[in-house]
Automatic annotation (TrEMBL):
PANTHER family in the cross-refs: FORMAMIDOPYRIMIDINE-DNA GLYCOSYLASE (PTHR22993)
Single GO MF annotation: endonuclease activity
Gene3D superfamilies: 1.10.8.50, MutM-like, N-terminal
Pfam families: Fapy_DNA_glyco, H2TH
Gene source species: Luteimonas endophytica
Entry protein name: Endonuclease
Keyword Iron: no
Keywords, comma-separated and alphabetical: DNA damage, DNA repair, DNA-binding, Endonuclease, Glycosidase, Hydrolase, Lyase, Multifunctional enzyme, Nuclease
Formamidopyrimidine-DNA glycosylase catalytic domain location: 2-89
The keyword Transcription regulation belongs to this UniProt entry's keyword annotation: no
Family: Belongs to the FPG family.
Catalytic activity: Hydrolysis of DNA containing ring-opened 7-methylguanine residues, releasing 2,6-diamino-4-hydroxy-5-(N-methyl)formamidopyrimidine
Length: 245
């Protein structure tokens, strides 16, 4: 599943389509995508894991789910969920994703203070939200898009290892300093992810995600295929990541 940094990169790559008229629409989405034809794409935006195409009076929300992908000015051998054609033969093609047309403007739906990669990010707001869920697991908290929009499973695993917190620790049991570290690193690691992804070196920086040995102490990592409410893959070190209960 593409995480927030990957969506930011797609937003940047597709930014050149903003201000241009859609000349062709195709795809197997069940939404009324035909209404996009001959309309001007006003802006290309993102919020967390959502890729947003803004038109006058409505916008298209795209979520790439587990296996979604995109192509700009090229195609892949798969059915197009939503394809937009522009002048000069340029095109934006989206595959295996969720497409939804939402009436109104993105500002009426999204609070950019919750997006860890947005300039409007509000750490104090994230802290207040976390305080309301003392029994929530740290792993689930990081994946909660209402609190940390854009954080996905890779970031979750790496942040918890970076701050030495076991994924099954309860939010209410974390000392104030550890809670601050969790909030700050959710944002800081997301920017590290973005920088490494742009340089095509992201996987070289994995410390625990998909790994077998902890680089910090040499202990064999723990792995669970489904952990927490989110039931996502978890990798952690039992030696250096403390369980707060």
């Amino acid at each position: 599943m593409p995480e927030g940094p990957s969506i930011v990169i797609l937003r940047e790559q597709a930014a050149g389509f903003a201000g241009r008229r859609v000349l062709r629409v195709e795809g197997n989405s069940k939404q009324d995508i035909g209404r996009l034809a001959n309309r001007t794409l006003r802006a290309v935006r993102s919020w967390g894991k959502h890729f947003l195409l803004e038109f006058d009076g409505f916008f298209v929300r795209v979520h790439f789910l587990l296996f979604g992908s995109s192509r700009i000015n090229e195609r892949k051998a798969a059915p197009v969920r939503l394809g937009l054609g522009f002048s000069g033969g340029e095109e934006l093609n989206l595959y295996a994703c969720s497409v939804r047309i939402v009436e109104g403007a993105p500002e009426e739906v999204y609070d950019w203070r919750g997006d860890v990669l947005d300039p409007a990010w509000d750490r104090a707001l994230a802290r207040r939200k976390l305080k309301r869920h003392p029994q929530m697991l740290a792993a689930d908290a990081l994946l909660d898009q209402d609190i940390f929009a854009g954080v996905g499973n890779i970031i979750k695993n790496e942040v918890l290892h970076r701050i030495r917190v076991h994924p099954e620790s309860r939010i209410g049991a974390l000392p104030p300093r550890k809670l601050s570290e969790l909030i700050d690193q959710a944002r800081e690691y997301s920017f590290d992810f973005l920088r490494w992804k742009r340089a095509f070196v992201l996987k070289k920086h994995y410390q625990v995600h998909t790994k077998t040995v902890c680089p910090r102490d040499g202990e064999r990592l723990q792995y669970r295929k489904q952990l927490g409410r989110a039931q996502r893959h978890a990798f952690w070190c039992a030696a250096c990541q403390r369980l707060y209960e």
